[in-house]
């Protein structure tokens, strides 16, 4: 069966427009940018984590917050750390244990999960809340997902389409970095004399 590509893409991209540029997104980006600026001012850090594609989005956010936004960002997706902590504490608790070992007062935690139900991410949110660390979450699917309920800043996409959700999460995250910087175009590479 041949699909009508133009018709499919018209509907597909309409979903992006409908879901990405909402009033909630604007408000959450503003809140997250303000929190990131406070973290920067106190020389603290943002700690990022997720599973699968969400781990990739987390890593991208940590690097760009650090390099571009001058807000220290770290992830725990090093294979040695992940496999050690998962082996010793169980996969459902490895992120929470990483936070326990690396978090300082004044830090903030950014957790990404499409379902908002991944046990490793939810347990990390529980640990962060008990420790008094602000939680920024990026989730989707159901509005009452556990990760969203445990969060202070709640980015949420009401969709079951994984690729759309993950791309919107990335757009919101990188828009926050650019909001901290105050512009969308900047030099990303130091000029080196040849």
Automatic annotation (TrEMBL):
It comes from the Bacteria. Residues 35-194 form the SIS domain. The keyword 4Fe-4S does not apply. Gene3D superfamilies: Glucose-6-phosphate isomerase like protein, domain 1. One of its GO terms (molecular function) is isomerase activity. The keyword Flavoprotein does not apply. InterPro entries: SIS_dom, SIS_dom_sf, SIS_GmhA/DiaA_subfam. Coiled coil: none annotated. PROSITE patterns: SIS. Keywords: Isomerase. This is D-sedoheptulose 7-phosphate isomerase. It comes from Pseudovibrio ascidiaceicola.
């Amino acid at each position: 069966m041949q699909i009508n590509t133009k018709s499919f893409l018209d509907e597909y991209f309409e979903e992006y427009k409908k879901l990405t540029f909402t009033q909630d997104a604007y408000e959450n980006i503003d809140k997250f940018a303000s929190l990131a600026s406070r973290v920067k001012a106190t020389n603290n850090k943002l700690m990022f984590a997720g599973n699968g594609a969400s781990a990739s989005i987390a890593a991208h956010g940590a690097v760009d917050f650090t390099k571009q936004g001058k807000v220290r960002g770290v992830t725990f997706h090093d294979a040695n750390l992940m496999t050690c902590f998962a082996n010793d504490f169980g996969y459902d608790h490895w992120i929470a244990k990483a936070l326990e070992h690396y978090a300082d007062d004044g830090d903030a935690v950014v957790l990404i999960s499409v379902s908002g139900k991944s046990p490793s991410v939810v347990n990390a949110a529980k640990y962060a809340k008990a420790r008094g660390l602000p939680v920024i979450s990026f989730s989707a699917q159901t509005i009452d997902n556990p990760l969203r309920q445990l969060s202070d800043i709640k980015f949420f996409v009401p969709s079951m389409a994984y690729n759309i959700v993950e791309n919107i999460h990335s757009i919101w995250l990188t828009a926050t970095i650019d909001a901290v910087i105050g512009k969308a175009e900047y030099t990303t590479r130091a000029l080196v004399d040849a």
